[in-house]
């Protein structure tokens, strides 16, 4: 498939899945599950991904031990400390960490990310989430989704205001006059809103990127409106081309309505590539990986993803009665609503998936697109989505690590490069520079 858009290139993120993104990947004999939680494993992944010229490594976060928490995919590396360690272990790749606005004070968050941006020389991004679990560990009640987003708007005003408290020219470093910084170029924030009262300013100057790159993953209307106002990179679960195209055009339109240009926001659907020597070999790999899934452990996840639906009395091959499920219109108003509920509801009610089929869909990809085929077929899929208005790039979810990740980096990435769809070297500068995103201007 020849490229027709040589002037436009996709951006690629890799999801930090230290033993593989597929739920049972840790059981693969070649996984490094024994090395979890030390530095060597994420360090090796970051350096491996950096060598392939990937734009950024994406670290998710979990704040509660879920019902299926016995598997290592349900736990993870704490983002702030890990980002700091990886910043010292790499030189070019961007590093994106997740932090919830509901559970951390905005002053702390602004300070942490600003310092990380300095330590990494401008390679940090913040994946903004409002939180869907974790309230049981923070002595707070989790508000409904719409209220969490309403609070997040004020939160962003505080954080960005703190990042802009120092003008870019505030630091003088004038040894002769004994002036390190011009205090007239540093302003208190003096924010006093409904949720937060923050005087400021931060204790550090404006970081290399001005602000870390702002990343967001919400798929609800509230989430998309929030992304249209603030996000510069969006990570989304759109498993089919029509769904991805609809999401892409909708979010770009909302972005324009927020007086921002299309190019100011880059949309990255999640993609799990199962790469084989040919399609038959890839399907063998996929089937063997799925055979590692323990159905009993996944039963609770089916219930959880469908908002704790009652599965009592159902067999693996039974359909879930529609009357047991909340309609999408009702579900979106609940505290536990998740952005993929509509997708799984459609499978259960309209497509008639059995409990087992739902389990396998949830376990294999968590609602993301899965491509099973040769390296050429995976590249064709990515090119089609990129050129047909579905993606500006992709968030790669390696099914297994190291093998699944290596096959994507060693076999698919060179094809994309040969087609002119992906760069062959980093741009000198920050993560913003590499993504083609503007640096927020300093206040006057």
From TrEMBL:
Alphabetically ordered keywords of this record: Flavoprotein, FMN, Monooxygenase, Oxidoreductase
Assigned EC number: 1.14.-.-
Superkingdom of source: Bacteria
Keyword Flavoprotein among UniProt keywords: yes
Residue numbers binding FMN: 61, 98, 149, 220
Keyword Oxidoreductase attached: yes
GO molecular function annotation: monooxygenase activity; oxidoreductase activity, acting on paired donors, with incorporation or reduction of molecular oxygen
Location of the Luciferase-like domain: 44-390
Coiled-coil boundaries: none
UniProt-listed InterPro entries: Diverse_substr_monoxygenases (IPR051260), Luciferase-like_dom (IPR011251), Luciferase-like_sf (IPR036661), NTA_MOA (IPR016215)
Family from the record: Belongs to the NtaA/SnaA/DszA monooxygenase family.
Record's protein name: NtaA/DmoA family FMN-dependent monooxygenase
Species annotation: Pseudomonas rhodesiae
